[in-house]
Amino acid sequence: MNAPSLNSWSKPLFARGLLVASLLVALAAATGPGQAVAQEKLKIGFGGALLGNLATYGLSNFYGLEYAVLDINKKGGIRGQQVEIVSEDDSCVPAKATEAAEKLLSSKVRFVLGHSCSGATRAALKVYGDKALVVSSSATEFSLTEDGKSPYFFRTTPRDDIQVKLQLALIKKNNYKKIAIVHDNGDYGQSLAAMTKKMIDEDLSGELKAVVYEGVVSGQLSFEPVIAKVVDAEAEALVWCGYYNDAAKLAAQLLQNNVKITLIGPDGLNDKRYVNIAQKAAEGTFCTGQIDYSQSAAARVALADHRRRYYSREIGSFFFYSAGAAQALFAALEKVGPEADFPTIKRRLTEDTVETVMGPIRFDSKGDVIGAGFKIFVIDHGRFVEVNL
Fold first, then answer.
1. Residues 246 and 381 in one domain
2. What is the pLDDT of residue 299?
3. Residue 366 three-state SS
4. Strands of 24-141, DSSP E
5. Residue 1 belongs to a domain
6. Cα 154 vs. chain centroid, distance in angstroms?
7. What is the pLDDT of residue 7?
8. pTM confidence score
9. What is the pLDDT of residues 181-219, one digit of tens each?
């Protein structure tokens, strides 16, 4: 078979300015020598943020998928059929995710790895309906699986209620009583905020109190009005519900105003770009994050492969979750065939435990992963250091 077409592979790679030579190496590795030219490939769609402020999420997801595709193609593909990635950027914007989903469906894609952000995923799922089976490795918003509206949606990342419980455990360990909750008004942020407040209100100790519950506009320049409310309420901890780009500005302005308060965030802060933007203001920030799978034998092979092709390019937070998502999907397709109907494929995903770079995983009946979890980290001298609760 011939190498994947430039139309299907070039968008995300050139969006980040990779050299043509790097692309050609990836293309050659994806197929191997002596393959036939004309056989049709199996299309796997990718939807995620490849441009914009949150592109680091999408690229991390893309690199993981890319590794899994290169690896399966070296082994002969799925039932002898080579795999091709068809990618669309959504910039983590719901309207763009809708367009991306429409384009992927028009390209005759039945399987999608994505999307990167929860709001974009929600929008895309409305378009896919029962026309595509979707596996996300980074969309954590609780209701994406809980509401049952998307029966062919799966995810390898744990969902938000798990990380909120960890954050509250941290709050209790540090004896904080007055909590400020601030969100970015997005699907991800609002869901986290509502869940955090609900768990605080329902806490049996009766000691915790949400003294501030405020939404802000993502992308705004000044957080001083909400900071003033936090100060007036004498909050001891500020739980940020949103992504790192806004959190970095919030942290910087807390430092500029000499507001000494513990900042706690979700996995949306667990990214080196948060530290790069906030710099010294990031020090002492707590955040949840995915389990580190980099030390397993399979993960080391995947990481070495990525570094051979991209040298020092960071894999980001979701590389292993994305590779694991693709490997679980590929195992199901190998077993029942890519032309099988979605209920048949779903049975394999929910009944079969598959070895991946994440270790052994499968999915429950709602589509949530079994075999993955969150940890709490603190930023210490620019590094994310795991905290034992």
1. yes
2. 92
3. coil
4. 42-48, 83-89, 111-114, 133-136
5. no
6. 13
7. 36
8. 0.83
9. 999 999 899 999 999 999 999 998 889 999 999 999 999
Q: What is the pLDDT of residues 372-381, one digit of tens each?
A: 889 999 999 9
221 and 337 inside one domain:
no
Asked if 81 and 129 sit in the same domain, the reply is yes
Assess contact for 205 and 171: CB atoms under 8 A.
Answer: no
Alpha-carbon distance 351 to 298, whole Å?
22
Looking at the fold, whether 23 and 89 belong to one and the same domain comes out as: yes
For 187, the token pair is 């699907």
* Helices 319-336 + 55-74 axis angle, to 10: 40
At 101, which amino acid appears?
A
pLDDT in tens, 118-146: 999 999 999 999 999 999 999 999 999 99
Give the pairing of strands 383-387 and 153-155.
unpaired
Joined together, the tokens standing for residue 315 give 């894999």
d(CA 90, CA 367): 23
Is the domain of 42 the same as that of 17? yes
Identify whether 235 is part of a domain: yes
Residue 28 domain boundaries: 6-157+294-372
**Non-local CB neighbours of 323 within 8 Å, separated by 6+ positions:** 64, 65, 67, 68, 302, 356, 357, 358
For the chain, the domain total comes to 2
* Same-domain pairing of 268 and 306: no
Please check whether residue 354 is in contact with residue 331, taking contact to mean a CB–CB distance below 8 angstroms. Answer: yes
